[in-house]
Amino acid sequence: MARDASPDPGRRTRLAVAAVLTAIGLVAASLVIGRVSAPVMSDPIDSSAEAGFARDMQVHHQQAVEMALVIRDATNDPEVRLLAYDIATSQAQQSGQMFGWLADWGLSQAATEPSMTWMSRPPLGASSHDMGGSMPHSPGSAMPGLATREQLTQLSASEGVDAERLFLTLMIAHHEGGVEMAKAIVERSTNRVVLDLANSIVKAQSSEITFMRELLAARR
């Protein structure tokens, strides 16, 4: 009698199950290997550039929000009002992100050293000698681009086109300072979350600077 050559359904099922279990095992092994081999990134410490940036940039952003809210009440121009809304919402949201970083890192929101101290230190891989012995900022110096209290008072007292001109002038300088700070942390950090936000600030604020210069030129 001829032998039945048809495959055994039970054997075929067992082989399939074994193949699935083998694949799962390989995936699990690769994940374990990945965790073991991946570099462990420790949280920034209190005196780190990341912590200094998060604290100082929150202060910097808060002034931008303040100026944006002032101009929204001082003008009826739709372009300027929309710009002000975008600045206020985006920078308030970014301030919240940086507040969250410090909380997640277990660090105080209040600075434990003078403002701009982190920018007075050399970038990664550089030294004071490499930089000619001079630093672009010193501990306790004013943050780049910040408006003075007198300028903010003048802005609050202005209306219409005068207010628009002053706002655009102050905010261009403010954004230039923000871009400088964002580029500085890019040179001083390897933290991916911090770098992502800093690079997004450089891109967004550089674009807004170009737009604000156009708006200001149209009002001269």
SSE blueprint:
Layout: H1 9-37, H2 49-74, H3 78-104, H4 117-120, H5 149-157, H6 160-186, H7 192-217
Helix pairs in contact: 2-3, 2-6, 5-6, 6-7
Mind explaining what this structure looks like?
The structure is a single chain. The chain is mostly helical and 220 residues long. The protein has a single domain (49-217), classed as Up-down Bundle (Ferritin). The protein contains 7 helices and no strands. The protein has helices at residues 9-37, 49-74, 78-104, 117-120, 149-157, 160-186, 192-217. Helix 2 packs antiparallel against helix 6 (160-186) and helix 6 (160-186) runs antiparallel to helix 7. The longest helix is centred in the N-terminal third of the chain and has 29 residues, at 9-37. It is elongated and about 50 Å long.
